[in-house]
Design goal:
CATH class of the largest domain: Mainly Beta
Organism: Aliidongia dinghuensis
Subcellular location: Cell envelope
Number of strands: 11
Structural class: alpha+beta
Shape: elongated
Distance between the termini: 87 Å
InterPro entries: CcO_II-like_C, Copper_CuA, Cupredoxin, NosZ/Cyto_c_oxidase_sub2
Bound molecules: dinuclear copper ion
Oligomer: single chain
Strand content: 25-35%
Protein name: Cytochrome c oxidase subunit II
Order of helices and strands: HEEEEEEEEEEEH
Number of helices: 2
CATH superfamily of the largest domain: Cupredoxins -  blue copper proteins
Largest sheet: 6 strands, mixed
GO molecular function: copper ion binding; cytochrome-c oxidase activity
Radius of gyration: 24 Å
Helix content: 25-40%
Number of domains: 2
Length: about 190
């Protein structure tokens, strides 16, 4: 074998390896795009937070987010919907009551500036943006208490902006739900 043909063979091997890696990189990108589209469409990972709108100036006057409609609502299909409003510097309700082992839909928005919405020891983590409804689905396996801090700097009182999520067992929750249209644990 001449030096020239050895050189050519080396180039051919390098080109083959490069082509293979180009395919692997392309496949990885395609996989990531597919995962993004799938989780986006199925709400599996990223909560859609800029789909529905809600006018922050009239939240307290009418519509879904008036105060009497906030808190946890038992739905006919056995699931629970929780509605929350964030404002400088608190959440309404300040204590969120939900049942364990139950599909929960959270619908939340902000009355003023961007706030953070995070429930400790869960993967619940989103932003509450004025003008938009943040919606996500979740469930809690076990009863227990979870702190819920605002984790988006929202002004001078930001570090004092906290609420709590109290997860109780299903029976306790639905027993209470027969007596109240909306539930929270604010006065419990
Ligand atoms: Cu609300 Cu930080």
């Amino acid at each position: 074998m001449t030096a020239q043909s050895e050189h050519d063979e080396g180039l051919e091997i390098a080109a083959r390896i490069e082509r293979r890696w180009a395919w692997i990189a392309t496949a990885l990108i395609a996989l990531l795009v597919a995962v993004t589209i799938y989780t986006g469409l199925h709400w599996a990972m990223m909560p859609p937070s800029r789909v529905e709108t809600a006018d922050p100036r009239t939240l307290h006057v009418s519509g879904e987010f008036i105060e009497s409609n906030l808190g946890a609502a038992a739905e006919a299909d056995g699931s629970v919907t929780v509605r929350i409003v964030a404002q400088q510097y608190s959440f309404t309700p300040q204590c969120i009551l939900v049942p364990a082992g139950t599909p929960i839909t959270v619908r939340a928005t902000s009355a003023d500036v961007v706030h953070g919405f995070l429930v400790d020891h869960t993967n619940i983590n989103t932003m509450l943006v004025p003008g938009y409804v943040s919606t996500f689905r979740t469930s809690f396996a076990e009863p227990g208490d979870h702190p819920m801090p605002c984790h988006e700097f929202c002004g001078t009182g930001h570090q004092g902006m906290w609420a709590e999520v109290k997860v109780v067992d299903r029976d306790t929750f639905f027993k209470q739900a027969t007596n109240a249209r909306r539930l929270s644990c604010v006065n419990q």
